[in-house]
Amino acid sequence: MFHRKKPDHADHRTSLIAHGTVISGNLTFTGPLYLQGQLQGELSSGDADAVLTLGEHGDVQGDIRVPFAIIHGHVRGDIHATHRLELAATARVTGNIHYTTLVLTVGAQVNGHMRHGADMAAMEPPAQAPADPDPHADTAADADASIASSPGPAETRRERRRRRARHPAC
User: Fold this and answer.
1) 147 and 75, same structural domain?
2) Which has the closest alpha carbon to 71: 111, 39, 40, 34?
3) What is the pLDDT of residues 126-142, one digit of tens each?
């Protein structure tokens, strides 16, 4: 009767970085993290169940890479939330936001780009292509072929279908 079973979430221990604490350097965590202090560096977690809660006095100067994040404070850097990102009314973000699911409360401020995508790896910046040793080595035939295969702005759907029927490789 008095021995109630604790809910599953009660077994997780939350890490706390209190108001007034300043950490310089990168921080990696697992499980839940409640940050009320200041972090000058990258904040990340490889744990699929990790939850970052940035309190109203919390301040992160660096990128955040976590599956779940609830932001009430200030972030100066990019946020990469692979599952869910919540921006509360007191949230202030200066940087780009990459998310799968976003909850944006009235009053939250974002100064940057917001990018949605189910595959977060696809949102990483593309690797630079190797430099072409001779950029002028293209022949005129190659240039004509690329121009002929790309539809012009005035080309209609019917014209594109006819061209594709005549040249299936285009």
Assistant:
1) no
2) 34
3) 444 444 544 444 444 44
What is the SS3 assignment for 121?
helix
Give the mean pLDDT of the chain. 78
Strand 51-54, strand 79-87: pairing: unpaired
Could you tell me if 57 and 88 lie in one domain? yes
What is the enclosing helix (H) or strand (E) of 101?
strand 97-104
Nearest alpha carbon to residue 28 among 40, 11, 46: 46
So what's the pLDDT on residue 154?
Answer: 52
User: Which domain does 145 fall in, by range?
Assistant: 139-170
Residue 87 covered by a domain: yes
Q: Span 18-47, mean pLDDT?
A: 94
Between 130 and 29, where is the model more confident? 29
Are residues 35 and 99 both part of a single domain? yes
Name the nearest CA neighbour of 109 among 83, 125, 91, 135: 91
CA separation for the pair 48, 170 (Å, rounded): 43
- Measured between alpha carbons, how far is 31 from 9 in angstroms, rounded to an integer? 10
Provide the β-strand partners of residue 86: 70, 103
- Asked if residue 111 and residue 37 are part of one domain, the reply reads yes
Q: Which of 83, 89, 51 lies closest to 70, judged by CA?
A: 51
